[in-house]
Amino acid sequence: MKKSCLPPLTGLLKEIIRITKLGGRGSKKELRRMTGKMGKILIDTSIIIEHLRLKNKKQTILYKLFQNKHSLFASILTHTESYAGKSVWEKESVRKHLKNILAGIKILPLEEITSEKAGEISARFNLEIVDAIIAATSIIHNLDLATLNIKDFKKVDGIKLFKN
After folding, report:
1. How many CA atoms lie within 13 A of 102 on its CB side?
2. The whole model's pTM is what?
3. Is the pLDDT of residue 9 over 60?
4. Buried b or exposed e, range 21-33, using 16+ CB within 10 angstroms
5. Please, what are the domains in the chain?
């Protein structure tokens, strides 16, 4: 018998493979339950700003998202807005911390399809263009949106807001 050069499968991976082989609705539900902590989340600028401002980082939504192993994404506009704060340019330590945060987040470019959707969202829901682009990015990429600005985003059809 040929020896495998692959490392042994972890318990979670084995269980995911077992469940997917079962098929049916129950298995999909179980799979979602097991992998629920690994959701794909689009981060709004408010989440990054909260993290930079609060002294107790462990209380921030961003810290909790990283701890729960979510796949984190941000629009290029969130990236830009994060660097627009004065403290980022006045304090080297803040800029380094921001760079470290953004290193763990996949930055999504502004694409034509997202731009078009943002225009529609801005017109239909009377949303500022930057927020409309964030909303469109969330919808186009099928990502839950983590934001502290629930009031403006909840009125947008098709958006999924992340709940702690």
Report:
1. 21
2. 0.75
3. no
4. eeeeeeeeebbee
5. 38-153 (3.40.50.1010)
